[in-house]
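Q: A reviewer asked whether we had any structural model of the full assembly, not just the individual parts. We don't, so I'm hoping you can provide one. Inputs are below.
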Amino acid sequence: MALQTLEFTFKSEATQGIAKPWSHLGVTGSGDLEVLMEKKDLGGDVKAKVITPVKGFDQVWERMLAKFVNDTGVGNVSIEINDDNATPIVVYMRLRQALAEAQAEEAE
Amino acid sequence: MEFQKVTREWDTRKKDTLARLNAAAPLVKEGKIVDAKDAVALLETVIKPFDKVNIEGNNQKQADFLAQCLCKVDPGKVHDLHMVQSVLTLPEHLDVFEKGIAKKLDMSFSGPQAGRIAEFLQAGKLELGAIHTYLELYGRYFLDLTPKVALVAATMADRDGNLFTGFSTEDTPAIVEATKFRQGIVVVQVNQIVDKLPRVDIPGDWVDFVIQSPKPFYIEPLFTRDPALITDAQVLKGMMAIKGIYGEYQVESMNHGIGFDTAAIELLLPTYGEQLGLKGKICKNFILNPHPSLIPAIETGWVESVHCFGGELGMEDYVAARSDIFFVGPDGSMRSNRAFSQTAGHYAIDMFIGGTLQIDPYGNSSTATANRVAGFGGAPNMGCDPKGRRHSSYAWLKCGEEYGIKEQMWGPVHRGKRLVVQLAETFREKLAPGFVEELDAFKLAKNANLAIEPVMIYGDDLTHVITEEGIAYLHKCRTMEERTAAIRGIAGFTEVGMKADPKETKRLREAGIIKTPADLGIDISKATRSMLAAKNVHDLVEWSGGLYNPPAKFRNW
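A: Here is a predicted structure for the entire assembly that you could use as a starting point for your response.
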């Protein structure tokens, strides 16, 4: 299946960053996705790159990612997503889980 | 005034049946027993053209041997039958229409055959009377759709025709009672003929012919959900349901629909439910098949009673060993009974909760798709506000108290309301939307020429919708506009949700008509499978102390 790459940039309040330089969560299995979060100085912005086999859902991806940024206030993060037909809620939950993971203290 | 009395015989049905029984007498080997090899000849003898005929079969057990035999009768002798039956599941249930043996159909539900029913309707091979609920169809068995001949299934019979239907009693009593007491003929396939039955579920004088089937009747483990397949999103919705509805309304009695959403809830009771301190306050009395996923909640003391529509393969020993909870006979095995379970499900429970495929902006909910005539079984009876209910409970009264238009509709009378809850994901697998502007039911009604759209739950009966975005407390709404706004507010990025007005959604949150996971105090990143009391089928076996014996297809260890 042909993959397509979507790229977005979101302005953020940047009320929180992430603790770890990078974190990784999930697998690119059917109906799921993997999320990579990287700490980066983006002037508060959040950049997102999505690689997905699903066509015609660009607007849904944009809105879902904007909701994530808006709900969490996260900033200065670069997000990479490798998707295999995950539903929006799965995407959102994995993002929240990845963020919780990225914010966790190193010494645990 | 002069009365015109009719001149007629008053026992023609009885005489007709007697004549058919006499004609079939040479086929009887001993007592009421007919050999399996003579089954087709028997059906050709006792069934006449245009008869109303029932083939027993529901979600679980199927009179499959008799269904196969009915397909083999000579259409020259037996034709134009009017089939009245709960479920069309086996290919043979439709083959009789293809062969011209049957013409008309009144039914409740069809799973795998739903596409073929739609095809046959369009090709004129089948006339559809109506798609009923189970209770509605049983009701009509005693009204205007009484079978002349019923082909049923039992676990065991003795030589006098007494039947043991046991764990899988299901629809048999309702069918046999309607048929026999209106002078009809009852033919039964049994797995085994024995000298002495464990108990008598159907008395022998209501049964005319007993056939030992070459193979035990087909039974489907339809209600077994492997916890390994429950998703984090289902865990999230389950947590929202437990906190925002079960706990909020202290729902004590209920039916859980089939599906992974409610299996997740069952497996969250011993973990999340326990954390919330809800044990003893919720989930005491169930109308439910013996779901294996309920085992951990039973073993941790949540559940007081469960009455079952039918059995579930592998749960026999567990259920028998928990006779305080399940309805178990003097012989030690459970008796299911769909008619009574559905009666409780319609009138007595406080809440129905289940999954759906599509919800429209008015709150109508349906699993119908454009090219499948499937029906809904019992869901519309449980998923409605029964106007005949006259007993109160905390949950029922609270829901009625919150009803947004109670003054206009009820005046000063104190009334309650059934909680009717639908669990929906905004997008399902393959990104099929759970919310649509127009239900596929409208297209189906057109395609299949149905008088009414097959809506599973009507919008005015639906009180709560749960999606990953939030819970909409629809019964609190005062107008259709407000109701539609509440639905849009939790419909995510579907075409329905995209039309939400963020200001209105915010107002509805402040009014307590929409509650998001955050409003409910649920941390989304903690909603993971680790919350489930059992992670797989093997865990369920452990919880049961080895009493649950899952079918081979669920054993992967």
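A: Points you may want to mention in the reply: The first helix of chain B runs from residue 12 to 24. Chain B touches chain A through 19 residues (CB under 8 Å).
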